[in-house]
Design a protein that fits this description.
alpha+beta; 2 domains; five-stranded mixed sheet; 5 strands
Length: 96
């Protein structure tokens, strides 16, 4: 009997892990992302989280904004989307 109860608890743990995994996967699909956009802003450049109305930071140079966006994207395992001056997408860097 002890062998069976040990097996049962192992199965319970496995089931719980699978449920946690699927719950987490569902939340990620519904939740916001941490993708960082480098966009033109008031004669300079800004870093803006995808879906946000407000900017995260503003910079004189695009290069500086890209460095900031890369730091944030690396931290949150997200992408950096770099825009041109006209707003079109120039490049995308993945930190997954």
């Amino acid at each position: 009997m002890p062998k069976n109860s040990t097996s049962r608890s192992w199965i319970d743990v496995l089931i719980e892990l699978v449920e946690v995994f699927f719950k987490s996967a569902r939340q990620n699909k519904r939740g916001r992302t941490w993708h960082q956009h480098v966009v033109p802003y008031e004669g300079g450049w800004a870093v803006k989280r995808e879906g946000n109305k407000r900017i995260t930071s503003k910079h004189r140079l695009q290069e500086t904004a890209i460095r900031k966006a890369k730091r944030l994207a690396r931290k949150y395992k997200a992408d950096v989307i770099i825009h041109r001056g006209d707003g079109s997408i120039r490049d995308r860097i993945n930190f997954d």
